[in-house]
Amino acid sequence: MEFYIDTADLKEIKSAAELSILDGVTTNPTILSKQNLPPKEVIAEINEMVNGKVWYQVSSDTAQDMISEALEMVSVISRPVIKLPMGLEGLNACHALSKEGIDTNMTLIFSVSQAILAAKAGAAYVSPYVGRVNDTGWSGYQLIKEIVSVYETQKFNTKVIGASLRGTHDIVEMAMLGARAVTMPYKIFSGLFHHPMTDIGRNQFNHDWKEYKEKLMSQSVEG
Question: What's the structural domain count of the chain?
Answer without folding.
Answer: 2
